[in-house]
Amino acid sequence: MTSGSRHAGGGTLFTEPYLLVGRPAGADGGFGVRDRYGRPLGTVVATGAGPLRKLLRALTNSARFRPRCFEVRDSGGSVVLKVRSHDSRFLVTRADGTPIGDITRRGRDWFALSAQGRSVGTLESPGGPDFAITGADGTEVARTSKGRRPGELDGSVPGAGEHVVEVLAQLTDPMASLVIAAALTLDPVLRHG
To answer: According to CATH, what is the number of the domain 3-191?
Structure first.
């Protein structure tokens, strides 16, 4: 990716260098994803919770009844990724269910990213709300931060409850999808039950 294309972005979840994540995005209980200028890029919606499960969650406030499935949707509402949590493993698929890879907890603040049985990177949270995602070679490819404004984020400032995803390199699949899935869904699962 050239420095010029990094600044310009591409107008999609997979091409923008900065994503602002977390502002509520409607009645479906999801949250929005915006570019650095505040333009909507997509949403993340918790799915798989029927009315009874929602009622039990509201009455008991138990993590056992919280949704553990997410759909990542583009700005047109089309599903581009699905993420399903099973214990300490997050399975990432395309909209049609084709497997992309998984994100597996290996320690309190450390996750392995893998695809087709091979390691493609790691995600670490060295304490606090921030994450760093590295490729298989150990190079940092993306990071998330809460409440901070990276130097190049010039159009919009994160609001309360939002976090910023900074993609440091142009990524291809499966890493691109795993980075987006991790950056958009791990925070709500880990921080909010």
So the answer is: 2.40.160.200
